[in-house]
Design goal:
Elements lengths: L1 E10 L3 H12 L4 E4 L7 H4 L11 H4 L16 H14 L4 E2 L4 E6 L5 E5 L4 E9 L6 E2 L13 E4 L14 E4 L3 H12 L4 E4 L13 H15 L6 H13 L8 H6 L3 E3 L2 E5 L2 E4 L9 E4 L3 E2 L19 E2 L2 E2 L5 E3 L13 H15 L12 E3 L1
Organism: Agromyces ramosus
Protein name: Putative flavoprotein involved in K+ transport
InterPro entries: Auxin_biosynth/cation_transpt, FAD/NAD-bd_sf
Length: 370
């Protein structure tokens, strides 16, 4: 076992972590990023193959390095993963991959101890958690009552239609991932039922040059809606409860694909899923697109994580735990906080508030063998 002593430890080397890391590197801070994936960018490569991002290229690149997709193109998850890996290499950011943090505790002197899965430990004055907002699937309790013959999976674990059993498919949850999965399944020849309320949709096709430009204006506008206003606080509550509107997919796309719409699935009877109006849905596969939450179970500090699995924080600063912060959480400050458009502003605020980059000489991080 070895011990590493740092000024700042960053948990997670996705987009938010790399943005934080670049700022720390520019300030000469003694820091490392710890990520449980084998390669930087795997959190994007591991998503479903049909995924395409919504953000225009002009707003998609991380500070200092443009993503190499066409001017009006939207990258796939795999392309985004490759870009993040290239970003880390380009700026020489100190990322320790295949390094899972299994426990975070507070020390008597106010610092932190991170226990890694390989037995090593890290001691840090500050810890910034950037491990992502969508790691742990959320499914309703009655999912366990479905007939065992029905295959079940969650959108977090969905990669492509080859995972679906032969026969009809029920997709529960009609937001962006749910409609993506429904269109995937319909394209593979399945009879598809999509359950859930329509969350609203962007009223134009984003996959055209003019709409790409308009989309940039829209995204900037969403960045301006923050928790500083009553409207922003109301929107935050709504988003955390119901998710965001459809961006690329439209009700007309689902209708053309033959996707059948039903209301919310709220119970199971005789092993079959039932909608709120009593409609029983036949399904060989149920894909739960019912939300997810961060994986923060490794934080062993009282009061930091709420009963809902979300951090107790204000603008990313952990409530009642000085030195601990988060970047990349849903609506951390604005509608765009969990997107690339909002992360850099949130990272700047967190680092300034923590004082994580002040008065730090440029030195190599020491490792002390046990």
């Amino acid at each position: 076992m070895s011990t590493t002593v740092l000024r700042t430890a960053v948990v997670g080397a996705g987009a938010a972590g790399l943005i934080v890391g670049k700022r720390l590197a520019e300030q000469g801070v003694r820091f490392e990023l710890f990520d449980d994936h084998v390669r930087v960018g795997d959190s994007w490569r591991d998503r479903y193959r049909s995924l395409r991002l919504f953000t225009p290229r002009s707003l998609l690149s991380l500070p200092g390095l443009r993503i190499d997709v066409g001017r009006f193109a939207y990258p796939t998850g795999a392309q985004m993963g490759d870009y993040l890996e290239r970003y880390a290499e380009h700026f020489g950011l100190p990322v320790r991959t295949s390094s899972r943090v299994v426990e975070l505790t507070r020390l008597a002197d106010g610092g932190f101890r991170l226990q890694l899965g390989d037995g090593d430990e890290v001691l840090a004055e500050h810890v910034i958690v950037t491990s992502g907002a969508h790691r742990v699937p959320i499914v309703p309790a009655f999912a366990s009552e479905l007939d065992p013959s029905i295959r079940q999976l969650h959108s977090v674990d969905y990669r492509g239609p080859e995972q679906l059993a032969a026969g009809p498919v029920l997709v529960v949850g009609a937001a962006n991932s749910g409609t993506d999965v429904a269109l995937d399944a319909a394209g593979a020849g399945h009879v598809v039922t999509l359950a859930g309320r329509h969350p609203g949709h962007v009223p134009f096709d984003i996959d055209t040059p003019i709409s790409n430009l308009v989309g940039g204006i829209f995204v900037r506008y969403m960045r301006s809606i923050t928790i500083d206003s009553a409207r922003g606080r109301a929107m935050r509550a709504k988003e955390l409860a119901h998710g965001v509107m459809l961006v690329r997919n439209k009700p007309a796309d689902l209708a053309r694909a033959g996707v059948v719409r039903v209301g919310r699935i709220d119970r199971v009877e005789a092993g079959r899923p039932l909608a709120a109006d009593g409609t029983a849905v036949d399904a060989a596969t149920v894909v739960w697109c019912t939300g997810s939450r961060p994986d923060l179970g490794w934080i062993d500090i009282a009061g930091v994580v709420g009963d809902d699995g979300l951090p107790t924080e204000h603008r990313g600063l952990a409530t009642g735990c000085p030195g601990l912060a988060f970047v990349g959480m849903p609506f951390q400050y604005s509608v765009a906080s969990s997107t690339l458009v909002g992360m850099d502003r949130d990272a700047a605020y967190v680092l300034e508030s923590l004082g994580a980059g002040r008065d730090e000489p440029v030195v190599d991080a020491p490792r002390v063998a046990a």
